Amino acid sequence: MDYKFRILRYDPLKDEYPYFQDYLYETQEQKSILEALMEIRNEQDCTLAFRYSCREAICGSCAMVINGKFNLACRVELDSLESSPIVIEPLVNLEIQKDLAVDMEPFFEAMRQIEPYLHPEGGLLEKGYRIEEREMDKIFQYINCILCGCCYSACPVISRDERYLGPAALAKLYRFVKDPRDKRPFSNWSRVNTEAGAWGCDTVFKCNEVCPKSVRPADGIEALRRKLVVEKIKRIFKFKR
Ligand code: SF4
Ligand code: SF4
Ligand code: FES
Asked: 105-240: which CATH architecture?
């Protein structure tokens, strides 16, 4: 079977503008987009740049835009795509480093700001921590995030406000807010009670729509907003008493 690929190319060191380059790819086997890209790079054009690692939808590094849809290249089968050519573009809202590889630093910087690890009371326990199943259910979907950046890239707020923490970081914060083992005071999160935090979201749910791991970041952001309102009301009543 023959496939035509149209891939966005850009090397900021030598190209004035991004451009599309076409490749013909032939295979008789079931292949993923990532496998096709690897063969194109190995057999036709060793200058083609893209990222990958696990090849099985775990590491999140092969996120890109495939025929206009955000996805992981390793989980999209060639046969599942009906239109030709297959158009491949890098994630948007992030600077292109080369071809399909983008600079993920703003995404990870937002993630670092929410300190995405447990802050237990009294330090780490040697024997680990038990957590009830019903508590686990509340945070389970957020644990599935593989930090691919699709939601960040698809978010319309990120495209106009670089201060916005973005859906993945805010959803991750909610995961820790709901985790009974995490004991940091919610009052620490003044940064989230802002337009760059939970109140910046336009609630257009694009992040829920594009997540390849079925995480629903916008649900976490809405829950964070409810939590911020409840905390505010609690403080008002405490002050009045
Ligand atoms: S729901 Fe909020 S965080 Fe998600 S894509 Fe829309 S604006 Fe961005
Ligand atoms: S929430 Fe989904 S789309 Fe966003 S970074 Fe995590 S896995 Fe990717
Ligand atoms: S290569 Fe790891 S998610 Fe695709």
From this structure: Orthogonal Bundle (1.10)
